[in-house]
Amino acid sequence: MLKISTSILLLPLLTLCIVAEKDHGYGNRPRGVPLSKASLYKEKNDFECLDGSKTIPYEQVNDDYCDCLDGTDEPGTSACANGRFHCINLGYKSMDVPSSRVNDFICDCCDGSDEQVEISGIQCPNICTQLGAKAREAAEEHKKTVTAGFAKRADLAKEGQKLVKEKTGGVDELKKQLETLQAEKDEFEKKKNAAEEKEKAAREVEDKVWDEERNVKRRNLATELFEKLDSNKDGKITLEDLKLIVGLDQDSNGEISDDEAKNYLFGLEELDFEAFFEKAFNPIRRILKEKVVKPVEEVLEDVGVTEKAETGENEGEGESEEENLEDDTPLETDEQQQQQQQGDDEDDLDIRPPYSPETLKIVEETAQIRNEFSEAVQKLSEIESTIKDSESFIEFDYGPDSAWASLKGQCFELTENQYTYKLCIFDKSSQKDKNGYSEVSLGHWNSWNGPENDKFSSQKYDKGQNCWNGPDRSTHVQIKCGEETKLVEATEPSKCEYHFLLLSPAACQDPAKLEESYHSEL
Amino acid sequence: MSYILNHGDRWKARIGEKKKVSMRAVISLFILLLAINLCIAVDRSKFKTCEQAAFCKRHRIQEKTADYSVDPTSVKANETGLQATLTSEVNNLKVELVLLKDNVVRILLDEAGTPLRPRFQPLIALNGTPVHEHVIAAEANPESASFVTPTGFKIIMNFKPFRIDVFNSKKELVISVNSKNLLKFEHFREKGADAGEDGFWEENFGGHRDSKPFGSSSVGLDVSFIGFKFLYGLPEHADTFALKSTTNSEPYRLYNLDVFEYELNNGMSLYGAVPYVIANNPTQTVGAFWLNAAETWVDIASSTADKGVLASIVDKFKASKDVPQMDAHFISESGLAELYLILGPKPYDIFRQYASLTGVYPLPPLFSVAYHQCRWNYNDEDDVAMVNAGFDQHDIPMDALWLDIEHTDGKKYFTWDPVKFANPQKMIDGLSSKGRKLITISDPHIKKDDNYPVYKEAKDQGYYVKNVEGNDFEGHCWPGASLYLDYMNPEVRNYWASRYHFDKYIGTDKNLHVWNDMNEPSVFSGPEVTMNKDARHFGDWEHRDIHNIYGFLQTISTHKGLIERADKKVRPFILTRSFFAGSQRVAAVWTGDNTADWDHLRISIPMMLSLSVAGIPHVGADVGGFFKNVDEQLLVRWYQMGAFSPFFRAHAHIDCKRREPWLFSDPAMNAIRNAIRTRYSFLPYWYTLFYEHSKTGLPIIRPLWSEFPEDEQCYDEEREFLIGNGLLVRPIAEPDVTQVSLYLPGRRQVWYEWNNDKTRPSPGAVYVDATLETIPIFQRGGTIIPTRQRPRRSSALMKNDPLTLYVAADTKDFANGTIYLDDGETYDYENGQYLYWGFTYKKESDFVYTITSKNLDPKGEFDPDVYIEKIVVRGVRYYPRNVHLYYDDYNPEGLEFEHIRDKHLIVIRKPGAYVSREWRIDIHT
Question: How far is B902 from chain A (nearest CA, A)?
Answer without folding.
Answer: 18
